[in-house]
Amino acid sequence: MSVSRRGFLQGRVLPFSGAFIAARGMEADQAAQGQERARSLVPPGVTGIRISSNENPLGPGKAVLDAILGKFPEANRYPFNSTPNESALTAAIAAKFKIKADNIVLGGGSQELLKNAVRAFTSPTRGLVTGSPSFENCPGVAKKLGHPIAEIKVDSAFRLDLAAMIAAARGAGLVFFNNPNNPTATVHGSKTVTDFVTRIRQASPETVILIDEAYHDYVTDPSYQSAVPLALATPNVFVTRTFSKAYGMAGMRVGYAIGRAETMKPLEKLKMPYNVSVFGVAAAIAALGDQKHIDAERERNTRVRAFTLKALGEAGCKSADSQGNFLFVDVGRPAKEFRDACAKQGVVIGRDFPPFEKTHVRISIGTMEEMEKATAVFRNVLRPISTSTGAQMEERSWR
Ligand SMILES: Cc1ncc(COP(=O)(O)O)c(C=O)c1O
């Protein structure tokens, strides 16, 4: 069918306190609620520009849409009985990376793999090390399980502080290393990543290192390379990837983990049966066969990202170096204040990211048209009150 295109508890002093962990653990829930509130602030009759969740604004290509639509007659089948079936997706990923099926675990989105990694590799005595701010999924699960969490603040350039994470990793169960890092969008080069892994393994060989490459396809920094070869060569290291970002398939819920077979076993045990649907399987296989679509999406994002960075810079706002489809921007005021003001003008941006919620916001990159409108709204919101008449005129001009 065709469709038209539309030093953990080993006598060390830990860098976390109970109160801090409790507050941080609730953050994801509060953030989600905050986002709902922001959405409801979009005035009636205004179609909101949703640049809040780091989604690909254009979605998947025609090959993927055709694959999804073509699977409706097989909605009655389990994914092991469909054509193609889930093993075919594993085989397609294996072919892409020239690896074996037992190096791969599929996830219902990569978040399933992140959650299961915390379940598999942390405990009340072997905690989690993560960045702050970084993606909240792993600390959210560790908090619910009552496992210790060391949250290491990013450095002055908003990059994950790898030296401090290495120091905290001794005796840890799991290190979550998000590269590029959500929400700061910064990346570490491949040599630095290799050194990071080597040093943790020298000091703490039992510690598992999860390298989350959700935004891999958006990176333009030439020093960056995927850590997949490193994971395949190194015990206790694995990489997660997702189809939710550059592939434009967040609603399909497909992700995967890659590592040595023995590292993958605990994740395989915790995996939900048939966690990727018949539609997700077909869509992901089609997406892997359409590299041109990903290359075009990277090129598009790079262009719109540069436009948005420039517009925000001209409005006096500095951003961290972005290697993703989002920017972490100093707006010099509480994120909530800025977010609510933008929502009133139809633009929905990201949630709070402590410890920078008093100064920084995360803005995802939409289409060029969306970002032209959104940056006009940002200018209005950032503008001193005395020029509000002009601001209202600019706002009206795009509705
Ligand atoms: C760093 C990072 N990892 C994983 C995910 C989750 O992706 P998925 O949709 O595959 O569960 C996200 C989503 O925003 C993310 O930012």
Main attributes of the structure:
about 400 residues, 7-stranded mixed sheet, two-stranded parallel ribbon, disordered N terminus, single chain, binds pyridoxal-5'-phosphate, disordered C terminus, alpha/beta
User: What small molecules does this complex bind?
Assistant: pyridoxal-5'-phosphate
Q: Strands of the biggest beta sheet: in what spatial order?
A: 2-8-7-6-5-3-4
Global Rg:
21 Å
Distance between the termini: 36 Å
Give the helix proportion (percent range).
Answer: 40-55%
Beta-strand segment tally: 11
Low-confidence segments, ≥5 residues, pLDDT <50? 1-31, 387-399
- Shape label: globular
Query: What is the chain-wise order of helices and strands?
Result: HEHHEHEHEHEHEHEEHHHEHEEHH
Strand content: 5-15%
Please identify the structural class as seen in this structure. alpha/beta
Number of helices: 14
Major beta-sheet overview: 7 strands, mixed
Question: What is the mean pLDDT?
Answer: 89
Q: What would you note in describing this structure?
A:
It is a single chain. The protein is of the alpha/beta class and 399 residues long. Helix content is 43%, strand content 13%. The strands form 3 sheets. It has a 7-stranded mixed sheet, with helices on both faces. Strands 1-10 form a two-stranded parallel sheet. Strand 5, helix 7 and strand 6 form a beta-alpha-beta unit. Helix 2 (62-70) packs antiparallel against helix 10, helix 4 (110-121) packs parallel to helix 5 and helix 13 runs antiparallel to helix 14. The structure holds pyridoxal-5'-phosphate (PLP). Residues 54, 109-111, 135, 178, 182, 212, 214, 242, 244, 250, 255 line the site of pyridoxal-5'-phosphate.
